[in-house]
Write a structure and sequence with these properties.
By secondary structure, the chain is mainly beta. It is 4% helix and 43% strand. The protein is built from five helices and 56 strands. The strands form eleven sheets. A nine-stranded mixed beta sheet has the order 51-56-48-49-50-55-54-53-52. Strands 19, 20, 21, 23, 27 and 29 form a six-stranded mixed beta sheet that branches. Strands 3, 8, 9, 10 and 12 form a five-stranded antiparallel beta sheet that branches. β54, α4 and β55 form a beta-alpha-beta unit. It is flat. The two termini are 31 Å apart.
C-alpha cells in the first residue's frame, strides 16, 4: 500500500473522514483514594486496584452534550463491617463516602439519572480473587457479594444505547451468603483454631491451639512460615492468612493448613493477617498477636487487621491466635497491634548573625544557617514529627562565654539571641521509644569535622571556632549510609549554581547514583538507578568542592543530582537515544497509549499506570488547524513500514494510527530515502511541536514502538 508522507497530512485533515469521528457523549471517570482521575476509553471504564480491595472510590459520569458538570450516575455501596451506605441511591454529583477509606467495597448498585434511562443503559461487573469475574449487572441491579467478606478488586463499567445488545459472560452478577442463626445449643456448635510455626534453626514446631504460643521468645529466632486450620462442629467455614515476608512483601492468602511464608530461604516473617470466611465468620471473631524484635508482644489484632511491623525489617518471633464468639470480649488490649514504618521528620532552625530566624526551618539533612559567608549561629530550635511511635528530640549547645547549656526540647531555644555569642558545638539525642529504633546523625559546618551520632559532640570547644551551618538526619538503627568523622564531608560546599539545558548520557559503568542534593553524602534515589546507560536532560549545573553535579530530568519526571564526571554530553544527537530509560514489557492488561500535545509526551500505559514516557513532536499547529495532530480516540492500524519518502520528506519505522497511512508514529525525519541518515535540523526539534500532524519519536523509541506495539492498541490524543 502506498503510504502518504507528512507533506500530505494537512490535506487529510480537511477530508470527510473527520466528520465520521465518534465523539463520546458520556465521559466516565474514577478516582481511588488520593490518585488522579482516570477516564474511560470508548465508553468503557476499567477500574483495577492491583490485587487490593477497593477503598476510597469516587465515580462520576458527565453528559457532555448537556454542558453540565453534574454527574449522571447514582450509586449505593455495601461495605465490609458497615453494610449499605444508604437505603436509596446517592444523588451526589461525585460519589464518595468517608467510610471507603478503611472499609472495603463488597457490592454496589449503579444507575443513570432518570432523564437518560430510556435512551441508555449502564452495565457493570466486578472481580474478586475468590470469585474471579462475576456476571454483568445493569440499571440498579446489585453486583458483587455479601456475607463472605470479599472485597472488590476490579470493576468494569460501560454505558450503551438501550437498543444495543447487553454484554454477558454467563455468570451471576451477585452472590449472597445467607446469615447463619445460632439456634443450636452450645454443645452443637463450637470452633477452635490450631497453628504451627517454622522457626529458624528449629524447623516446624509442634501444633498448638486456642491462644497458646507458637514460636519462641528471648532467643532472637525468626519465624519463617506458619500454618493454621480450624476445628468446627455444627458450622462450616475456613480460616485464611497471609504473611509479610522479608524482601518479598505480602504473600497471597493461604487457607486451612497450607504454608504461608518460606522454608529453606532464611527469610523472616514481619507481619500477619488472619481472617475467617463462611459461616464461622458470622459467629466468631479471630484475634491474634505477634512478638516482634525490639517491640516484644504487640497488642491483639482482629479479623484481618495487620499484626506486626512493616518497613522496619523486624522479625516476628512468636504468635498467638484465638477464636472469640461475636458476643465475647477481646483476649487483651487492642490499641497497637501493628507499627507501620514512617520516616520521621527532624525539623531545625538557626538564629544566624545578621539574619536572625529569617532563614527558616530546615528538614532531614538540609543546611540550617549558612556556609561560606562567615556568619555565626547564635541559637537553635529543633523538633520531630511524623513519628511511627512515641518519643522526641533533645538538644543542647556549647557557646562562647557560657559553655554547655542544659538540654532543650520540642522547639525550645538553645543558645542565645541578641548577645552576639557564637554557638561552637551541639549535642542531639532522641528520647522515648523512637530512641530505641532510630539514630540521629548531625554535623556542624566548621573546620575539619564530620558526623556525630546520638548525643556525641559535634563542633569545637576551646578553639574559638564558630558554627555556621547545621545538618541533622534520622535513620533506622544501624541503617545509616553516612561515615562518622570523615574528613571528606567537612569541606563540601557549593561554589556556584546555574541553569543549563543539555542532554547527557549516564555511563553504563557509573559508580554514582541520583541523589536529592548535589553532595556526596546525601541519600541516593535507588528507584532511578535504572537510568545508567541512558539519557536525561540536565537543567541545573552546580560547582562544588566535591566536583561538578548535574540535575537531570526525564520525560517521566525528575531523576536527581549526579556527578557530571559520570556522564557524557549527547546534546548534538540526543534523538538517537531512548528518552526514558529501559523499555518495559508490554505483556500487561489494558495496554493503551496517551499523547499530550501540550506536554509533547507519549505515555505507554497499563490502564492508568504509566509504563514509559517518550519525548515527541506533534503537529506544529493546534487542532483543528492545518499541520496539526488530531485530538480524540484512535487505534494502532495495520499500515506500517521501515521507512516512507514523499516529496522530499519522510521518516523511518512508522506505524499508522489514523487515516490508514495518513497519521503516523515514526522517527524524527530522515534526510534521504533510507533509514540511517536523519535530518539533523528537524531532529533537534524533538520535544517541540514541529510536524505536519504525525507524531515524531526518537530513533530507538520509534524502532521499539514499531516492533513491539500490538495492532489495535488504543490511542488517546488530547491537548
Amino acid at each position: 500500500m502506498q503510504v502518504s508522507s507528512e507533506s500530505v497530512e494537512n490535506e487529510a485533515q480537511g477530508s470527510s473522514e473527520d466528520s465520521t469521528l465518534n465523539e463520546t457523549r458520556i465521559q466516565l471517570a474514577y478516582q481511588l483514594e488520593d490518585e488522579n482521575w482516570h477516564y474511560a476509553i470508548e465508553n468503557q471504564l476499567n477500574i483495577d486496584n492491583h490485587g487490593e480491595a477497593i477503598k476510597g472510590l469516587k465515580l462520576r459520569g458527565i453528559d457532555q452534550k448537556s454542558g453540565s458538570e453534574e454527574s449522571i450516575l447514582e450509586f449505593r455501596g455495601h461495605y465490609s463491617q458497615i453494610g449499605w451506605n444508604t437505603e436509596g441511591f446517592s444523588e451526589e454529583a461525585i460519589f464518595s463516602e468517608p467510610i471507603n477509606q478503611t472499609h472495603a467495597l463488597e457490592a454496589f448498585a449503579l444507575r443513570l439519572k432518570e432523564n437518560l434511562r430510556e435512551e441508555y443503559s449502564v452495565y457493570y461487573q466486578v472481580y474478586t480473587s475468590e470469585f474471579s469475574w462475576l456476571g454483568w449487572a445493569k440499571n440498579g441491579e446489585i453486583a458483587g457479594s455479601m456475607g463472605y467478606g470479599y472485597g472488590i478488586e476490579k470493576i468494569n463499567i460501560c454505558i450503551l444505547p438501550a437498543s444495543e445488545e447487553a454484554p454477558t459472560n454467563g455468570h451471576d452478577s451477585f452472590v449472597e451468603q445467607v446469615a447463619v442463626e445460632k439456634t443450636a445449643t452450645i454443645q452443637e456448635i463450637s470452633a477452635g483454631v490450631q497453628y504451627q510455626a517454622h522457626v529458624e534453626s528449629v524447623g516446624w514446631q509442634n501444633t498448638v491451639k486456642d491462644g497458646a504460643t507458637a514460636g519462641t521468645t528471648g532467643v532472637a529466632r525468626r519465624i519463617e512460615a506458619i500454618k493454621l486450620n480450624l476445628s468446627l462442629v455444627g458450622i462450616t467455614g475456613d480460616i485464611e492468612y497471609r504473611s509479610h515476608i522479608e524482601n518479598l512483601g505480602w504473600s497471597s492468602y493461604s487457607r486451612d493448613g497450607a504454608i504461608s511464608g518460606t522454608t529453606g530461604r532464611k527469610l523472616q516473617l514481619e507481619a500477619l493477617q488472619i481472617r475467617l470466611v463462611g459461616e464461622v465468620a458470622q459467629l466468631y471473631d479471630v484475634y491474634y498477636r505477634v512478638h516482634v524484635k525490639d517491640f516484644g508482644w504487640l497488642d491483639w489484632a482482629k479479623n484481618d487487621v495487620i499484626a506486626g511491623t512493616t518497613g522496619f525489617n523486624y522479625r516476628v518471633e512468636a504468635y498467638e491466635v484465638r477464636l472469640v464468639e461475636k458476643t465475647g470480649v477481646a483476649p487483651g488490649t487492642t490499641t497497637r497491634p501493628n507499627v507501620i514504618f514512617k520516616q520521621p521528620n527532624i525539623r531545625y532552625s538557626a538564629h544566624v548573625q545578621d539574619y536572625g530566624w529569617t532563614l527558616g526551618t530546615q528538614t532531614n539533612g538540609n543546611i540550617a544557617g549558612t556556609t561560606g559567608r562567615g556568619k555565626r549561629i547564635e541559637a537553635l530550635k529543633m523538633s520531630v514529627d511524623n513519628l511511627p511511635m512515641s518519643g522526641g528530640v533533645e538538644y543542647r549547645v556549647h557557646g562562647a562565654n557560657y559553655g554547655w547549656q542544659t538540654y532543650r526540647k520540642n522547639g525550645e531555644i538553645a543558645g542565645t539571641t541578641g548577645q552576639g555569642l557564637r554557638v561552637e558545638a551541639v549535642n542531639i539525642r532522641l528520647t522515648g521509644e523512637v530512641a530505641k529504633h532510630f539514630d540521629v546523625y548531625y554535623r556542624i559546618h566548621t573546620e575539619n569535622l564530620g558526623w556525630a551520632k546520638n548525643g556525641e559532640h559535634a563542633g569545637t570547644t576551646g578553639m574559638r571556632y564558630q558554627a555556621e551551618g547545621l545538618q541533622v538526619v534520622l535513620f533506622l538503627k544501624g541503617r545509616s549510609n553516612l561515615v562518622q568523622n570523615s574528613q571528606s564531608y567537612v569541606t563540601h560546599k557549593i561554589n556556584s549554581i546555574k541553569a543549563v539545558s543539555r542532554y547527557v548520557r549516564v555511563y553504563n559503568n557509573s559508580n554514582s547514583a541520583f541523589s536529592n542534593e548535589p553532595t556526596p553524602f546525601f541519600t541516593k534515589n535507588a528507584s532511578v538507578a535504572r537510568f545508567r546507560g541512558y539519557t536525561g536532560r540536565a537543567i541545573k549545573e552546580v560547582d562544588t568542592t566535591s566536583g561538578r553535579y548535574y540535575f537531570l530530568v526525564a520525560p517521566g519526571g525528575n531523576l536527581g543530582w549526579i556527578k557530571a564526571s559520570e556522564t557524557e554530553n549527547v546534546q548534538s544527537n540526543f534523538w538517537m537515544y531512548n528518552t526514558d530509560g529501559p523499555y518495559p514489557s508490554l505483556n500487561v492488561s489494558n495496554l493503551n497509549i496517551s499523547v499530550s500535545v501540550s506536554q509533547q509526551r507519549v505515555r505507554i500505559r497499563s490502564g492508568s499506570r504509566t509504563l514509559y514516557t517518550m519525548l515527541c513532536s506533534t503537529g506544529m499547529n493546534l487542532w483543528p488547524s492545518t499541520n496539526s495532530t488530531p485530538y480524540g480516540n484512535f487505534r494502532i492500524q495495520a499500515e506500517k513500514g521501515s521507512y516512507f519518502w514523499n516529496s522530499g520528506s519522510g521518516g523511518a519505522f512508522y506505524r499508522s494510527f489514523h487515516g490508514h497511512g495518513v497519521y503516523l508514529f515514526h522517527t524524527v525525519p530522515i534526510a534521504t530515502p533510507e533509514t540511517t541518515v536523519f535530518n539533523l535540523r528537524e531532529a533537534a526539534k524533538l520535544g517541540q511541536r514541529a510536524s505536519h500532524g504525525c507524531i515524531r519519536l526518537s530513533v530507538p523509541d520509534a524502532k521499539w514502538f514499531y516492533y513491539n506495539m500490538p495492532y489495535n492498541t488504543p490511542v488517546h490524543i488530547y491537548y
